Amino acid sequence: MVESGALQPLVSLLAAGTTADKLVVAHTLLKLASGKKRCAQIIKAGVLPQMLMLLKEGSNAASRLNFAIMMGNIAASGDELCLKMVHAVVLQPLVTLLQDGSVCVKEQAAISLSNLSVESDERSAQIVDAGALKPLIKLLEEGTDSATKAAIALGFLTFNSEQRRALVFNAGALEPLAALMKQGSEFTALRAAVVLGNLAVGSEERSMRIVNSGALQPLLALLNHSSEDDGKVMAAVVLRNMAASSEDVRALIIEAGAPAALFKVKSAKAATKAPVKAAATAAAIAAADAVAAELLAEEESAKVRRFLRPRVSVLRFCAC
User: Fold this and answer.
1) pTM of the model
2) Domain count, the chain
3) Distance CA 27, CA 24 (A)
């Protein structure tokens, strides 16, 4: 449709049609807003100002939802020009939707902000400056789907920035994130763990607070029992970040049983990233702590003993 020349008439209808016509056009355009080439064509055709006008004309749920979804699709294209245009024109409206939209609209706004923040410190900083943190943290408490989308956004925003990590932590993100680790689905717990791993980087205070929040045992459970390799990988990364922060935090991690859990994962015969990450975390903890080194050595010795132990019980059972 875009290639056939139908785009400009759609934009004209978006500008001058009835409200009902505009909603139909907006719904059509959001379906087209995928891929770098199409997104660039849609933006150059002047869709963004018209979508903003539609948003301002009324507060109906359909126009808000269409707007949030389209911005997410355009941002997901990865086209730098599209990203710059969307960010410059619609950042504040997206934050407004995150603050006072319906739950569904808030979720879509969070997705759009996530897509805008990917691999861009500048855009991430501007999203925080626009006031997105508090509504994102509030969204962590809105239910599993909402919380997952909010955690994904916070994961991107806390990546590679001590300033944003401190802002997210001080805004009160820890408690709802810890609650998601304890009570959320495995996928939601994984997304919460990403944020906790970022928050733990380079901070004894934040790492100790993560331990005191009750998130340590759920992290170990994710390491031990996650059905996905990503869950085990992320748990190992979080534990490594926390353990690196101080001797006191490291002692609590060891006391909670991390060496045995890490050894189990690193010894798994799987061609995945989890054993590698677990081995790296175990090595880092052992290098900094004699107790952990001894515990890991005992696990290694026990593994050898189990391997060498005759399988007498099986033979006896078969002989009976």
Assistant:
1) 0.79
2) 1
3) 5
